[in-house]
Amino acid sequence: WLKHFGSHWHLSTPSSSNMGASISCCAEGQAKAAEFVNEAKEKGLVEASKEAATEAGEAIKEKAEQLTADAQSGKLAEDIKEAATSAAETAKETVTTVVEDAKSGKLQEDLTKAAADAGAALTDVTAAAAAAMGPTVTLVFEQAGKTTEVKFTKRTLGFEYGAQKAGGCCAAAPTGKFVVTKVTDPELKNVKVGMLIKKINDEEVPATMELGEFKEKLTVAVKTLPEA
Question: How far, in Å, CA of 28 to CA of 24, rounded?
Fold first, then answer.
């Protein structure tokens, strides 16, 4: 800012500490302008402008000389170095804290606890969803190398099954392989005749299982379902 004191102009820099005083800047600026106009009338516009420019230039030169002196004396470099050192120390403290937590096991404990909390929350949500859905029986079918998982919610499954012979035909003889022989529910779109029943819920159907044992396991599983 250019300030005029008597017959001299000085350059000053505003700071946050004098922001309150800047509120009267407009009034003060108007007064300075009026004073400059009076000098222009007395000395002429050219002469008044020349004096103002000269004094402003001297003030700028003085500030530049001060900065140069600080740079030459090392003060400016010291200020910059101090700021950089302070920032580096802050970063070092942060890294040290993380490393110490990792060494002491605290970081691992925090991560383990967070994972456990997340797992518990997921289990609660899964259990609530399962309870809301009610009991189900899941059967896994296989045909032409492709598996299909179907969930049943009623006791009437909607299909008939039987033991499969080595040649592929159905028979009453136990073979360890049980296939769909007839689909009785037209809405059961994912189950096809000839599909092999591979799992009852999460339990694999072993190759040594007899037809009677298979029927018993499937009946027990289906009994948990409500009536159709």
Answer: 6
